[in-house]
Write a structure and sequence with these properties.
The protein is of the alpha+beta class. It has 5 helices and 8 strands.
Length: 212
């Protein structure tokens, strides 16, 4: 069985265990069942062990990540800014893996999706942008490689209105690339499926937002 299938099983086990821990505690459950809590925690350990076996992470690292995800498990949100200028797309080189993606990142509490993408593009590329429209909402469960946690990716078509290209503490370089001459992509952040939809929206302003 390939490691992607194992990861899918591990994520499902984690989700079930986290739901069990949430709903077996106050305020959902007045009297905690110590035996159930112990079983759900063991399921988390099993999930972490599976992930560690099929990744470069240690079991302790996975458990530490699990510990930050309190309450009912829900998808995370990633935002990306798609900027096309003179037929070329803006990409940033990620410090994390040395590959390229559209600027963006995980959503922060307290900001709208629009505010987040404008801030992320500025932080990672140096450019000020305005949002033209939503390209689509992508489900990372349908893309490889899969992330540890389920996530939705919101991609916005943007236009540069100021600023200068520069890297950041998360990005090494900034550049514009022809769509047929792309560098190696950081596919968990930006993949060809998303780029195809971005170009379809760029070429057809009346195209409706993609979703799945």
């Amino acid at each position: 069985m390939d490691h992607e299938k194992w990861l899918a099983y591990a994520r499902e086990i984690y989700t079930l265990s986290q739901s069990g821990l949430t709903y077996n505690a106050k305020p959902f459950h007045e009297d905690e069942d110590a035996f159930d809590i112990e079983r759900y925690r063991r399921l988390q350990e099993i999930s972490a062990e599976i992930i560690a076996q099929h990744s470069m992470l240690a079991t302790e690292e996975v458990m530490s990540t699990f510990a930050m995800q309190r309450g009912y498990p829900t998808p995370k949100v990633d935002v990306r800014g798609a900027i096309i200028q003179n037929g070329e797309i803006l990409l940033v080189k990620e410090l994390a893996d040395g590959r390229w993606s559209m600027p963006g990142g995980w959503a922060d509490i307290g900001e709208s999706a629009a505010e987040m993408v404008i801030r992320e593009v500025k932080e990672e590329s140096g450019f000020d942008v305005k949002i033209d429209r939503l390209v689509g909402v992508f489900n990372n469960n349908r893309s490889e490689p899969r992330d540890l946690f389920h996530a939705y990716k919101l991609v916005f078509l943007c236009t540069i209105i100021g600023g200068e290209p520069r890297g950041s503490y998360e990005t090494l370089q900034v550049g514009f690339f022809p769509l047929r001459e792309l560098p190696i992509l950081s596919t968990s952040r930006t993949n060809q499926r998303i780029l195809d939809e971005v170009m379809a929206h760029y070429n057809n302003p009346s195209r409706t937002a993609f979703y799945e």
